[in-house]
Structures are given as structure tokens and as C-alpha cells.
Amino acid sequence: MKLLDKYILKKFLTTFVFVVLILVSVICVIDFTEKNDDFIKNSVPLGEIIFDYYLNLIPYYANMLSPITVFIATVFVTAKLASHTEIVAILSSGVSFRRLLVPYLMGSSLIALVIFFLIGWVIPNANKESVAFQVKYTKNPYTYDGRNIHIKIAPQTYVYMESYNNTAHIGYNFAMEQIEGTRLKRKLTSHNLQWNPEKKKWHMDSYVLRTFDGEKESIYRGGALDTTLNLLPKDFESTYKLEQTMTLTELNRYISEKVNRGADDIEIYLIEKYERFSYPFAIIILTIIGVIVSARKARGGVGFQIALGFFLAFIFIIFVIASRSLAQVGDLAPHIAAWVPTVVFTGIGFLLYRYVPR
Q: Model-level pTM?
């Protein structure tokens, strides 16, 4: 690493950290202002607010803002270098523009690797604490309102409930069917199914078991029954920001379980998974674009270039939000939605590199 690389890399990384701290601090102040009434209403201890909520929330916001902050940091550093005629001097000494990009690529790659590790394993564990805090103190009690629930709990076994009370942990008009091919082999029904927390089993006061053998049907009526199912009360609990509280390993396992059960609400989890892989690449692409748009010395100072940086950063956010919304309603495949903003801005970066004077 040459002296020039160290000089630019140090400025880039320190500016990035500074921008992250400033923006996260502003957001935390705004968040505290919005939630202060809830804190007072619920008499939340100051220690829990600071250590359980905000210390765990800061990494989440830092990651969420990382494409913006890295872009702003790049534009600010490069524009300042250009305004001091340092970039002109660098290029005049025989250094190519591609070579000038090297320290920026080193810095953005380092940030991207750290971000990938954080969003894969560290931030989800922090989110577990902050989300639990929000559910406890700032959200209304959750009520499961699903009707006519169908869940696949085994390769040939399906469960149906008309409704479920997540407070009493009772499912009403319960039915479990075993289907082989296109034939119904067994069907167990009960008026209700209640979770027994001591035994960790489901309890039925009475049940009816129908067994089918071709055209023949046999019926057995039983009394009380305790049974285990590939179904737990947590399957009916609040899913508020659930995808953000799972590590990559947990997320992959949860998606697989959802697919095996035939669930139709996995888009949000797939988007979360693919975005965790696309985010690091977005950071590198936005860094390159930031250098390109701000490397030229502006006669009016760096104000316009910094404003342009903010504008392009928010355009990127709009792309992220729009593609995510399209994926959630089923108009766009989740893996495509997660990569659309990065691919689009890669194209923008290529065009800027080709045609913007430097």
C-alpha cells in the first residue's frame, strides 16, 4: 500500500464512521422523541431503554444506512480533495483514474465484509433484544386473527383450525388429515386443541378418528388425549420484524420450514435473505459512483456535489423500497427484487464512468 492509498483510505474510513455516528445519533433522538410517551406511560427503567433498546438498535440503524453513509462519505472526501486541487495533482503525476479508485475499493470492500458479517450474525442477535423491547413496551398486545388455518406439518400430514386464540393457546374446530397420494387415509377431529405448557403437548378433551381403507371407513371416538405435533404456540405469535431477528443460519432454516409447510408468506423472509447478500455489493458500487460524480473540481465549491450525493443516495433507497414492495405483493421474484437496485446502479456507474468528464 502506497502513501497515497493510506492517505485516501484514512480520510474515507474516518469520514464514513463520522457520518454513521451523526446520522444514527439524529435518528435515535427522533426515535426517542416519538417513543418517549410510551416509555413514560409504561414506566420503563432508564437502564432498559439504554442497554436493552438503544444499544441494540444502533447497529441496526448503522447497517440500514450503510449504503447512504458510504456514498455520502465518498462524495464528501473526493469533493474536498478535488476542491483542494489534490486530485488534479494526483492525475497529473501519472496516476490513472482507475488507480485512484484503488484505496476507495479497499475501504468499501472492508466495510462490505464487516457489514456482511454484522447483518448475517451480529445484528440479528441485537435485534432480538430491541424487537422484544418494542413488543413489550411500545406495541399493542398482539392478537392472532387468522381464519381457516391450513398448515402442512409432515410430508403427508395436514392440520386445519378454524381459528386460534394466541392468549389462551387454544385452536378451535381442529382437524388433522393424513393423505397418501390423492387418498385420505386418516382424519382426526376435535372441537378444540389446547397447549399444555407443563407437558409441552397439545391436549384434546375428546376426539374422533376416522380411518379409510378404500371404500371402507372406521370411526373411533376417544376421550382425553395428549399429543405432540410439529406445531407450537410460537407459530401463532407476533411476527413483528421477525425476519430481522434471525441469523442467516436461522433464516435459511425458517424459510425451509415455511416451504415444507406450504406457507404463502415467505416473500418477506426471502427478500431479507437476498438483501443481506446484495447490500455489500451495493456499498462497493455506490463508492465507485461517488468518486466519479465528485472527482471533478467544481467552480462553485463542494456543495453541489454533496447535494448530488444525497440525491443519488435517496434514489437508491427509493429503488430498494419499490422493489421490496413489488416482491411482497408477488409482482417480482424476491431474489430479483433484492438485486435490482444494485444492478441498476451498476449500470448507472458504468455510464457515469464512460461519459462524465473527470
A: 0.89
